[in-house]
Design a protein that fits this description.
Blueprint: E1 6-11, E2 14-19, H1 30-45, E3 51-56, E4 61-63, H2 68-71, H3 76-95, E5 100-104, E6 107-109, H4 111-118, E7 121-125, E8 129-131, H5 145-153, H6 155-164, E9 168-169, H7 170-176, E10 181-183, H8 188-200, H9 204-217, H10 222-236, H11 240-251
Parallel strand pairs: 2-3, 3-5, 4-6, 5-7, 6-8, 7-10
Antiparallel strand pairs: 1-2, 8-9
GO biological process, one term: fatty acid beta-oxidation
Keywords: Isomerase, Lyase
Catalytic activity: a short-chain (3S)-3-hydroxyacyl-CoA = a short-chain (2E)-enoyl-CoA + H2O
Length: 260
Amino acid sequence: MELKNVILEKEGNIAIVTINRPKALNALNSETLKELDTLVDTLENDQDIYSVIITGAGDKAFIAGADITEMKDLNTMEGRSFSILGNRVFRRIENLEKPVIAAINGFALGGGCELAMACDIRIATQKAKFGQPEVGLGITPGFGGTQRLARHVGIGISKEIIFTSRMVKADEALRIGLVNKVVEVEKLMEEAKLMANTIAANAPIAVKLSKVAINRGMQCDIDTALMYEAETFGQCFSTEDQKEGMAAFVERRDKSFKNK
């Protein structure tokens, strides 16, 4: 599939995915979602990619939302299908074995906020603004906003944000736990790449299994979650990277992981 609205770049062991519709404030239409879906296949299959950054083109928006021009004339079945498409793609990003960092500048509204929440870590600039404004348009959030926002910030705050459709500035987003870090605009990609490379320097299989254990554990009771942890912990001892990491520690030398 030819990519028209999404750009993929690689720098060493990190991948940088840019939503590239700046004239539409990077709004998500069906075509862009399908391109993202195709791109996830590439990210999954490239064993040289250890971490991923998702960002938006231009300085006004990460993603301003789903494309209202496309949505406004949908019927019930078409609306449901559009929601299912977005949810499926975002769920694939959430379940991607490689950690995903959202680098957010400007508006992250509706589908943009929902995509950011599907990522593992969120770094925002001081200009970033978040929100789920859908009820002001006569719809509900459709790409996971009613579910992930509550999981990130709690039920009460998520209901307030969704019911009022107000925008949340970067400093509040940091305070309520919606983002991990707020940086100056000019340092956004520098900070995102620093974190991505820091992650990539660790044992990739161990990072992958840690993500699996966290994601699975959040959906079940603590005893079941601890069993998932024990399973992933045990799996690590079948890897070359575990042998290398512990040998390097004991021998007081630099480690060299091979993703094996």
